[in-house]
Amino acid sequence: MLEVSDLRVAYGAIEALHGVSLVIAEGEIVTVIGANGAGKSTLLKTVCGILKPRSGTVTYGGAVTSGLPSSDLVKRGVALVPEGRHVFPEMTVRENLDLGAYYRGSRSAVAADLEQVLATFPILRERLNLPGGSLSGGQQQMLAIGRALMSRPKLLMLDEPSLGLAPAIVQQLGRIIADLNRTGTTILLVEQNARMALKLAHRAYVLATGRVTRTGTGKELLEDPAVKESYLGGHVG
Amino acid sequence: MRELAIAVLAAVMIAAPFMLGDYQTYLLTLTLIWAILALSMGLVLGFVGQINLGQAAFVAICAYTCAILRQRYGVDFWLAAPVALAAVVSIAALVGLLTLRLKGPFFILVMLAFAEITRLVIANWQDVTNGPLGLKGIMPPEPILGLSFDTKRSFYFLALVVLAVCLLALWRLIRSRTGRMLVAVREDELLSEFIGIPVMRNKVIGLCIGAFVAGLGGLLLGPFLTILAPSQFTLFASVDMIVMAVVGGVGTLVGPVLGAIFLVYVPEFLSFTSHYRPAMMGALLIIVTLVAPRGLLGLADVARGLLARGFGKPRRESGERGRAG
Fold first, then answer.
1. A41 domain residue, yes or no
2. What is the pLDDT of residues B106-147, one digit of tens each?
3. How many domains in chain B?
């Protein structure tokens, strides 16, 4: 479904990705773990068309998409939930969700999807007419995911969704991601919270300073001593 | 309650010219035109998130195009007006594509340059614009649908209808998906791009809507003053629009209208100080930003809150304002 090959991305003179390759098949949950500054967000921004690669390609659904603007990728079914629970703080929850479907013509299909999203996140239904900025951190994350779902993505990319959330909320989020995957959404999950991500993922990549240093199934990497040492808090658990 | 207020206001506005003399009707018409211009600046502030020092150039381009078509080529006002509007919107789109990539001070500076270039072209293209002397004797619009506009009162109603239609159309736009997208881009450009909203296209659309409304004001300005000259379209014209939008309350539709009323009538009472108008505008802008950053509408909210508390009622939420447009 998605193939990233030998991707190099730079901010001015500084190269952040030094030739990253990865593959995601339809129906998978793939996670990319790595420390701060490893290039995880850069990778996602390039896949969804916000950054242009210096070299290498992104192929999605059989066509090269690197170089296309983000609005094209959304229409092709790629949605990003950006890092830091980004919502429009002054718009209501309903307006935030509706913006996720901005390019879709069919009002009835959008209304049906809104129902679906509200069924997934019942807390948003209670707060439909409140400004997005008034929600708690976890609720804003739900809203950001809900907004991405409103574009009916085939590939949903999440950038550190667990950041700064209470453990109980992180668990709930994990269940929701697994559910979304079961109903047919392919997922690319980027995380520092490697344990949660690796448990969820079918396959995983480890990204360090702009390169893929390890890859395997989620289970393999959970038991990999080097991964344990660096990303799972050493020997503990 | 709100419907009642609008109905009362409409009735007052319709009755006003029948009760006032010619001069007061003239002042009221001037206020309406300024309100349209201030509204156009409010739109650029609300949709692009930038002040636009080139707004007066949009007004000038539309006003001149319409007047030149009429005076030199004998085109009917009602035919010249849409052509002039199309011209100003195309120019705004072109300028927007070139300048809206620029951030912060650069956009403001380039638009200032655009305004000055426009003004200099008008001042020097003597054959067409009659240079600094300007175009004189601009006639009221030709009669249409059995209505003629050759009295002060009838022209007042024309301006009133244009403003009312603008307000209604924009009120609807802001509540539409297009409007929300425009506001989203203003609120958080990066996030808009993340969720796949074509940011650049929306900013250009925002600027074009602003230019369209500014053009409407320009169309009225020529026949109203009967003269158009480059000296009317200096930087200070754009600054006046900014001051009106800010004094009235940024991010609302009613704000610029209130600002226009305030800034037409207050100098009128202080007309002996007209020499110092630019300085007074500057001082007013500073005072408003320091003391009442949400403008007259913000002050009204505060006053209502105080009153409600004074009568022991719970204080009303004032958070609904300041959202869009």
1. yes
2. 888 999 999 999 999 998 998 888 888 888 888 888 788 878
3. 1
Cβ–Cβ below 8 Å for A89 and B187: yes
- Show residues of chain A in contact with B322, CB under 8 Å: 90
Q: Do A69 and B198 touch (CB under 8 A)?
A: yes
Name the residue of chain A whose CA is nearest to B191's CA: A86
Please state which of the ranges A38-42, B54-58, B161-165, B268-272 shows the lowest mean pLDDT: B268-272
Q: Tell me, what's the pLDDT at A196?
A: 86
In chain A, residues with a C-beta closer than 8 Å to the C-beta of B180 are 91, 95, 98-99
Phi, psi at A93, each rounded to 5°: -55, -45
Q: Which domain holds residue B155?
A: 26-310
Residue B315 lies in a domain: no
Rounded mean pLDDT of A170-181? 91
Q: Residue A234 — pLDDT band, cuts 50, 70, 90?
A: low
Which range marks the domain in which residue A178 is found?
2-86+154-231
Q: How many distinct structural domains can be found in chain A?
A: 1
**Chain B contact for A79 (CB, 8 A cutoff):** yes
In a domain, A29, yes or no: yes
At residue B154, what is the residue type? S
Q: Is residue B14 part of a domain?
A: no
Ordered DSSP codes for B12-35: HHHHHHHHS-HHHHHHHHHHHHHH
pLDDT-based confidence at B321, cuts 50/70/90? very low
Q: How far is B49 from chain A (nearest CA, A)?
A: 15
Note whether B197 contacts A69, CB cutoff 8 Å: no
User: For B261-289, what is the mean pLDDT?
Assistant: 74
Asked whether residue B17 is domain-assigned, the answer is: no
For chain A, what is the mean pLDDT?
88
Distances (CA, A) of B232 to B95, B111, B151: 22, 17, 24
CB contact under 8 A, A91 and B183: yes
Would B108 be classed as within a structural domain?
yes
Indicate whether A59 belongs to any domain: yes
Question: Chain A contacts of B323, Cβ < 8 Å?
Answer: 90-91
CATH of the domain at B189: 1.10.3470
The ipTM of this complex is: 0.81
- Give the mean model confidence (pLDDT) for residues B76-101: 92
Q: Is residue A212 part of a domain?
A: yes
Long-range contacts of B196-202 (CB under 8 A, 24+ apart): B196/A48, B196/A70, B196/A71, B196/A73, B196/A74, B196/A75, B196/A79, B196/A102, B196/A103, B196/A151, B197/A71, B197/A99, B197/A102, B198/A69, B198/A71, B200/B97, B200/B100, B200/B101, B202/B47
Quickly tell me which residue has 């789109």 as its tokens. B93
* Mutation target among B187, B195, B250, B252 for the A interface, most CBs of A within 10 A: B195
Q: Which of B212, B196, B200 is nearest to B87 (CA)?
A: B212
Helices A137-149 & A93-100 angle (0-180, nearest 10): 30
CATH number at residue A49: 3.40.50.300
**Is A91 close to B177, i.e. CB distance below 8 A?**
no
Instruction: Let me know: does A30 contact A24? Beta carbons within 8 Å.
Output: yes
